Amino acid sequence: QLQLVESGGGSVQAGGSLRLSCAASEYTYGRYCMAWFRQAPGKEREMVSTIYSTSASAYYIDSVKGRFTISQDIAKNTLYLQMDFLKPEDTAMYYCAASRAGCFEDKDRYDYWGQGTLVTVSS
After folding, report:
1. CA dist 110 to 12, 37, 88, 93, 103, Å?
2. In angstroms, what CA-CA distances link 89 with 51, 120, 123?
3. What's the rounded Cα separation, in Å, for the pair 56 and 108?
4. 2-55 pLDDT, tens digit each
5. Strand bridging mode 59-60 / 4-7
6. CB neighbours of residue 118 within 10 Å
7. Which positions ≥6 away from 14 have C-beta within 8 Å?
8. Which of 4, 16, 51, 69 could form a disulfide with 82 if both were Cys (CB 3.0 to 4.6 A apart)?
9. Looking at residues 85-108, what average pLDDT do you find?
10. Which pLDDT value is given to residue 9?
């Protein structure tokens, strides 16, 4: 059973940066689509970014393009989300997820989830 553990959340001012990490309990590169989701209070959980293998496969939702970067450290079995130029609307609980079947926007297509890490951006 794949286990995912997120870290790196915190409180920052608008315009600041954070790097989220997601440590996996087993090798994920090329075996799972790895994704970052977020859920703001009172809102649905939304997919933010996905990556299957190389950075060329990375996908971002429009609202984070040019500000967020997803990457993987194969040797460490760790997924990252570098978040720059943060905005108050980025405030949410951020979750790492893995899918065996491919990359999807639908959260129900993901098989494994981390516990989440909270990001708060103040104006």
Report:
1. 29, 11, 27, 17, 9
2. 23, 9, 10
3. 24
4. 999 999 999 999 999 999 999 999 999 989 999 999 999 999 999 999 999 877
5. unpaired
6. 12
7. 86, 87, 88, 121, 122, 123
8. 69
9. 97
10. 98
CB neighbours of 120 closer than 8 A, spacing ≥ 6? 10, 11, 12, 91
CA distance 35 to 37: 6
pLDDT band at 56 (very low <50, low <70, confident <90, very high): confident
**pLDDT given at position 76:** 95
User: Beta strand pairing status for 10-13 and 117-122?
Assistant: parallel
Per the structure block, which two tokens stand in for 86? 């943060």
Distance from the first to the final alpha carbon of the chain: 40
Q: Which of 119, 115, 98, 120 is nearest to 35 (CA)?
A: 98
- What is the C-alpha separation between 4 and 85, in angstroms, rounded? 26
Q: In the predicted model, what is the mean pLDDT of the chain?
A: 96
CB contact at 8 A, 39 and 96: no
